[in-house]
Amino acid sequence: MLLSLLRRQQCAAWLTKTKQLLAGGCSTPPARSPSSSSSRACWSSSTPARSSSSTSHKQASAMSPAPAVQHPHLVFWERTPPFAAYATAKLAACSLDVRSEVKGTKDTLHLAFSSGERLMGLPLILRYIVRAGTCGLSSGLYASDALSSTQVDFWLDYVCQNVVPGSGLEAVLQSINDYLTFRSFLVGHATTAADVALWGQLQGNPLWKKLKTSGKYPHLSRWFDYYAELPECKTAAEELVAMDSKKQKEAAAAAAQAVAAANAAPGTFVKKATADAGGSFDVGLPNAEMGKVVTRFPPEPSGFLHIGHAKAALLNQHFAEMYKGCLLVRFDDTNPSKEKDEYVDNIIKDVKDLGLTFEKVTYTSDYFPQLLDMGERLIKAGVLYADDTPVEQMREERLNRVESKCRGRSVAENLAAWEEMKKGSETGVNHALRFKFDMKSVNGCLRDPVAFRCNPTHHWRTGLKFKVYPTYDFACPFVDAYEGVTHALRTSEYKDREDQYYWVLKEMQKVWPGLPHVNMWDYSRLNFVNTVLSKRKLTWFVDTGRVDGWADPRMPTVQGILRRGLRIEALKEFILQQGASRNVTFQEWDKIWSINKRLIDPVCPRHTAVENRARVPVRLTNGPSETEVVVIPRHKKYEPAGKKALLRSSQIWLDQNDAKELHDGEEFTLMDWGNAIVKSITKDPSGVVTSMDVALHLEGDVKKTKWKLTWLAQSDELVDLCLLDFDYLVTKKKIEEEDDFMALVNPHTRFETAAQGDTNMRTLQKGDVLQLERKGYFIVDEPLTKPGKPMVLFNIPDGRTKNMTAPKQSGA
Fold it and tell me: HEC states along 675-737?
């Protein structure tokens, strides 16, 4: 790993620099070359010299939240625009004045304060901007934990010191390119100041523009293209380039200087909701104020997150970032009958895998005391009443708009029943608290919905402390407002509940002074063909053993599709393409898998496998007398994939389906070897090929052969494989309400094929992605761990081909 390599190379220098900083000195990070000085970072002052203790205090201040200083000046040499600092200021909503100097050097860059003090060097400037911005720290630019923040520090120093013009640049870029092979960010799963620093160094490096087109750095190029289009980075680059008069035509020099001067006027850098912000999620929220938006992602811990939840999570994060606000993750744990700590742990894992940057994790159960208090206040206000009507009768009455016989109970009667409910007594458990809204409403959600019900089940967090629990309809408006959520996002299927939400919140605000307003905003649910996203139905698949748990690759859960081989980057890109539309559609799975293929194909290594069933022994009449070993690339177009050993012998294996296509005298190509000519074919009475003799014809033209076939040398070193493919859990594309669900359950969804792979596959580890040439893409689910047990590979759909193994051997 790159971090480990760099740690070994720079550990001593890093410790020295840190000690000097903390001791009050100013140290330059270990340089790649003597000429590299872009990373120098220290305080300077135009005021008279102070004692060493004062200086030390000032340097320590650079590592803690900066004091409120009005509009520090970002000063730079016009030939080296501060792309990273300018973009970070936009991301962190940090107010700066910007000034370029015609006469200067690459060391001119500094932040000048009205006190006369200066911050020198990009790393220290970026640290200040993140801390000084109105939402810099809350946005995750400095990560969310101590370890990740330390990694951000490492990358800030490393990037600013090493990603500079010079003879060693290409080696540095190659290391970073390798590090980004399966990463979208330098640290964690979201943008940090480290990413912006790297983008800025590359953006301002003329050599990078040439190297980028060479094709040598595909992952770094992919990463760079993303940040080049990030609204803050894109705008920063455009504005800074416009300031550089030397890049303007001579005739427009004066005008360009005037524009630059105007742009450098005092002001704040605040991200605007432009057409570039967030792709097709680019819509505005009602009553949204920059820097004050708070959204929440409220999963119920009654199962794992599925792909629909992923859209909700990423959409909430998008708006929080768009308005420089924050995101809360809140577990709606109000139903102890369904909830487990196992689900909480896995949802937190999924949230982190999705790269969500959130302010904190909370639980509705954190507010049970306040919710019970609110319940009592609403009883006293005449808004809630206790009802002991049987559930089925209550449901029927609501459907027919019939008021309950208990609706006219007095406040005293309702309070007495409420006390019994809180005790969980025999009388109490037969009651529910209901809102007294409008039983005649055409909106069924307003017909006196239930607010509290008894449940004696052990709660996974609070145990048996509570016997009565709020419904989602009661808890959600209160906790949203209580936590300061400004915008609550819901799928459009719950549109009818918006009136209920606002009604409940309004009644609560009457009895709880200061409870703020919450804005509702709806978007379309993410649906897929041949897929159920109902948690109840998914639980049924798990409980009945039709799948092997929530992370089964047939499940549409986040863990299931990632285990199947989907990359997080592909999932995010797909959801971004869906945007915030309110149009309800059913998506084809091939779209998301096509995106995934585009990400994995350029980098995954190539291997070879031959199926065991009816494989054909082939004798090369003029083949090598002894087994030969030839070293070839694992990926001909991606050198970092490494090398592999190719065994050649006079006895090889071919797949039965390939052998059937050949005829006597036909010339074909053995991939990675050369051409061969069929001399004889032996078949059994049913037409199955049982053996072949061929002769190598290496001088033949591989471009002229019809068949390019994969093969394996017969060897005891071949790796036993179990290739698994999967089908949809249900047979109908779009399931309707009136459908008999059980009749649509697919009885055969797992397909297994025994095969052998090349000897290089022995080193593959769980989660490795590869291509079995001419068979498809696979992910290692179970590596080789025990003698006699095969390596298990899951077929990764590519959005184009049909199931590789499904037609061959069926399983569960």
Answer: EEEEEEEEECCCCCEEEEEEEECCCCCHHHCCCEECCEECCCCCEEEEEEEECCCECCCCCCC
Q: Please give the DSSP secondary-structure letter assigned to residue 638.
A: -
Structural domain includes residue 20: yes
For the stretch 236-275, pLDDT in tens is: 888 887 776 444 443 334 333 333 433 333 332 223 333 3
User: Of 244, 263, 282, which closes a domain?
Assistant: 263
Strand 468-470 relative to strand 616-620, pairing: unpaired
Looking only at the bridges linking them, the beta strands covering 609-611 and 294-297 are unpaired
Q: Assess contact for 574 and 592: CB atoms under 8 A.
A: yes
**Residue 678: which CATH number?**
2.40.240.10
Q: Domain tally for the chain? A: 3
**Count of Cβ atoms closer than 10 Å to residue 322 Cβ:** 24
Torsion angles phi and psi, residue 48, rounded to 5 = -55, 150
Averaged in consecutive runs of 10 residues, what is the pLDDT profile of the chain (812 residues)? Answer: 43 39 35 37 40 34 42 82 91 86 72 85 90 78 88 92 84 92 91 94 87 89 92 89 54 35 32 36 78 95 93 91 94 93 92 91 96 98 97 96 97 98 96 96 94 95 96 97 96 85 96 95 89 93 95 96 95 80 82 95 97 97 95 95 96 97 97 97 96 97 96 96 97 91 95 97 96 98 92 94 45 53
Q: Is residue 288 part of a domain?
A: no
CB 132 within 8 A of CB 108: no
| pLDDT for res 103 | 58
List Cβ<8 Å contacts ≥24 apart for 235-238.
Answer: 235/87, 235/90, 236/83, 236/86, 236/87, 236/90, 237/83, 237/87, 237/203
- Residue 48, Cβ neighbours under 10 Å: how many? 6
pTM of the model: 0.64
Answer yes or no: is 271 within a domain: no
By the 10 Å C-beta count (0-12 exposed, 13-18 middle, 19+ buried), 519 is classed as middle
How far is residue 791 from each of residues 389, 644, 807, measured CA to CA in Å?
59, 18, 21
CATH of residue 79's domain is 1.20.1050.130
Report d(CA 757, CA 629) in Å as an integer: 16
Whether residues 213 and 97 fall in one domain:
yes
Rounded to whole angstroms, how far apart are CA atoms 682 and 689?
Answer: 6
Q: What would the pLDDT profile of 184-226 be if each residue is shown by its tens digit?
A: 999 998 999 999 999 999 998 888 888 888 888 999 999 999 9
The four Cα atoms 209, 211, 216, 220 give a dihedral, to 10 degrees, of -40
If asked whether residues 89 and 173 sit together in one domain, one would say yes
Cα separation of 567 and 807, whole Å?
A: 26
Report the distance separating Cα 292 and Cα 93, nearest Å: 12
Distance of CA 356 to the CA centre of its chain: 7
User: In angstroms, how far is CA 523 from the centroid of its own chain?
Assistant: 20
Query: What is the share, in percent, of the chain residues with pLDDT greater than 90?
Result: 64
Find the largest Cα–Cα distance for the chain.
102
**Direct distance between the N- and C-terminal alpha carbons of the chain, in angstroms, rounded to an integer:** 39
Q: Token digits for 412?
A: 């005293």
Angle between helices 52-61 and 2-23 (to 10 degrees): 140
Cα-Cα-Cα-Cα torsion 633, 638, 639, 645, nearest 10 degrees, comes to -20
Asked, for residue 804, whether it belongs to a domain, the answer is no
Strand, coil or helix: 564: helix
Q: Which domain holds residue 553?
A: 294-365+527-597
Taking each helix axis as running N to C, give the angle between helix 2-23 and helix 169-179, from 0 to 180 degrees, rounded to the nearest 10.
110
Of 677, 709, 741, which residue sits at a domain end? 709
- One domain for residues 180 and 64: yes
Cα separation, 106 vs 124, whole angstroms: 16
